[in-house]
Structure formats: structure tokens, C-alpha cells
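User: Second chain of the day. Same drill as before.
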Amino acid sequence: MGAKRTSDSVDRPVPLPRLDRPAQNRSLERGVEILRAFRPGSDLLGNGELAERTGLSRATVSRLTQTLVGTGLLEHDRLRRAYRLAAPVLSLAHAMRSGSPVLQAAAPLMRGVAEKLRINVGLAVADRDEMVYLESVRYNRKVALRNVVAGQRVPIELTSLGRAYLAAAPEERRRALLAQFRARRSTGGPSLAREIARAIDSVAGQGFCVASWQPQVVALATPIVVGGHPVYVLNMSVTTEASADAVAVELGPALLELAAKLRDAIERL
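Assistant: Same format as last time:
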């Protein structure tokens, strides 16, 4: 496997192609970039750190943070001269989860399979160069050190979730992401590219791919493509000493069966 990334990495991604959106509000876009800079492990950031993470000037960041404090989305820690996300941001996330008809349909189905098979089941979508969990039902056979919750991010290039997404992503989007992964790796690029290519072939051939980027954790994932919706990716994972091939044989049919049920449920919305 290639080198792992941490979720609070300050590396800025290579920009992806932008659509021609003449009505786009640049100030709003920059404000959103400020909010995006906050990640687990990076809960308190000063203007200098925000400027580094967003690529914006310190003067622009200063204006934006003052505005975001005024609107209640950021809190200002005067002693540390830094900012943290404020409570209304959590309220927005809750509104998204509770108001999503897709999650309302998917969660009971996912929970039923997780409890029956005693496995972890997750549903995610892509956001830039990462996958974001929309729902995660943890029912592991062993006590796992890694706890995944809704809203958590994982890298596209290293995970079964991300590789299954690449298999279903539009060609232009996939090429842009692959170029981005190559650009930020000084070593291991060719090996990673081969792993991704094999995963894409696996999705085409058997409907899912397998990856093990965390110690003793094997995960399978399959994309769910429904018109008018983003590409959803469903995964199942277990903490085990068994081989990835053995886990694939055991869980592959259940993964595809659940994905078909979720696809039908989403199409009926």
C-alpha cells in the first residue's frame, strides 16, 4: 500500500477542473473554504494557519473569520487568538442527516445486515479527494481500535470506498483525481495506480472491490448509481486475520444483495 494520510493534513489538493459558473459568489466560496479547513485534530486555527490551509491571503482570511464569528458559525478564542467551529455548524449537520430521505431509507437496511452478520456497514459519498461517511453502523466481531462515525473522512485512493467510487465516477472526474494522486506522491505512485486499476477492474467484473488499508481490517465496497443522485458507495468491513480473498468470498454476496435493496429504495424516493 502507499503511504497513509492523516485527516488533518495541511497539504492543499491540486485544483480539479471547474465548471463555468458565472453566478458563483466568490466571497461565499471563500467563506466555505474557511469552514472546510477545520478537521478532527485541527479544531483551533489562527488566521495564519487558515491562510496556509486555504491559500487565501491573511487579510482576506481576517475579514472572513470576523464575518463568520458575526454570523455565529465560528467562535473566537481571544486568549489563543484562534477560531473554532461553533454550535450552529453541528446543527446544520444534524439537519442534513435527519432530513435525508436516502439515509432514512438506508439506515434500517444497513442496521439489519450489520446485526445479522456482526459486521460493520457504511454508506459514503465523495467530496473532493476524500470519501465522507453518511452512515456507519459498527457491529464488529472483535473490539476494534478504529471507530468510524457519520461525517468521518477517508482517502479515496487508499480505501475500498474510494476505489469503488472511482470505478463509477465520470471519466473526466476520475482522470482528474488520478492526476491529483500522482502529483502529491514522491514514491509509490506506480504501485498505487496498479492497485486502483485492479480495484476498478474488480468492480467491473464482480461488482465490488476489496482493500485493507488499516491493520487487520478488510473492507469491501460497491458503488450505487441512481440517476439524479450522487454516486453512493456501500461498504462492509471486519476486523479479522483472514485473507482479503476469504472475506470477499464470505461477504461479497451479502454486499451486492444489500446494494440492490438500497438502489431500489433510492429509486422509489
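The first helix runs from residue 26 to 36.

User: Great, on to the next one.
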